[in-house]
Amino acid sequence: MSKRKSLTQGLPAALLVLGAAIFTFAQDPNATKPNVRPHQPTQATSSSASPAPTANTKSEPVKYTYEFTQPKFVVKHIVLEHDAAGRGTVTFERLNEDVPIVEKIELSPAALGRINAAWHGLRFLDSKTDYQSDKQFPHLGTMRIGMEEGTRKRVAEFNWTNNSDASTLINEYRRAADQAILIFDIGVARENQPLNAPKLMEVMESMMKRDALSDPQQLLPLLDDLSTDEHVPLIARNHALRLIKKIRGGK
């Protein structure tokens, strides 16, 4: 009985010693478990690790341009430039006016998606395709599309094309420019010529019916503001409300 009692009394002490040994091993920095700090990512840190990507591996910023010229048109010259995000400027000149007007522009995601798809279809910088059709229509104006990426640059000129992607680009850019010019004209009317506002509402509706606007959804904030502007005639405000319902799908 005394021998069994002594073994029983000595057991807790042995367990304490064993527990302390396990705790010490767990805290030993030289132990064989992976040396990973909780606040650092698990990655190789030796000198043989792959180097970080250099600046040369990054894609170069891209610049896109569209230009239209026809000296006899009311809007005789248009230059639209934008980056990969669709932000840029539109510069236009009117007949009998020598000072060009520059306005900021931001293509909507929907319009930019259509434009990017057309550029991708052309593979523009890797191509030397002549987009000019066999028939010439110089009276319709001269168009130029261009892309610049780093040291690579190309511009193509034509007055008519049978290439579907080139035609899509021309149509999309022309709609974007026309929408920007319309917004500018409405701004001028509100500030200086409010009696022109009703006519401009008619122009906007006509362009909507002809699918001549880049993205009518972008006009909603302007129309909302215009519908409550007491500086413009009531007929223009009411017309703005009707256009809002039409754009939003109302009857």
Your description of this structure?
With 251 residues, the chain is α+β, with helices and mostly antiparallel strands. Among the domains are: 59-173, Mago nashi protein (2-Layer Sandwich), CATH 3.30.1560; 193-251, no CATH class. The chain has helices at 2-27, 109-122, 164-191, 197-209, 220-226, 234-247; strands at 62-69, 75-82, 87-94, 101-106, 142-149, 152-158. The radius of gyration is 34 Å and the shape is globular. Mean pLDDT is 84; it is low at 1-57.
- Overall pLDDT confidence: 84
> What is the beta-strand fraction?
15-25%
**So what's the CATH class of the domain at 59-173?**
Alpha Beta
Helix content bin: 40-55%
Taken from the alpha-carbon principal axes, the silhouette is globular
What is the strand tally? 6
How many helices? 6
H/E series, N to C? Answer: HEEEEHEEHHHH
Please name the CATH architecture of the domain at 59-173.
2-Layer Sandwich
- The name CATH uses for the topology of the domain at 59-173 is Mago nashi protein
Main sheet characteristics: 6 strands, antiparallel
N→C terminal distance? 101 Å
Numbering strands along the chain, what is their spatial order in the largest sheet?
A: 4-3-2-1-5-6
Question: What value does the Rg take, in angstroms?
Answer: 34 Å
Kindly name the structural category.
alpha+beta
**Low-confidence parts, pLDDT < 50 over ≥5 residues?**
1-57
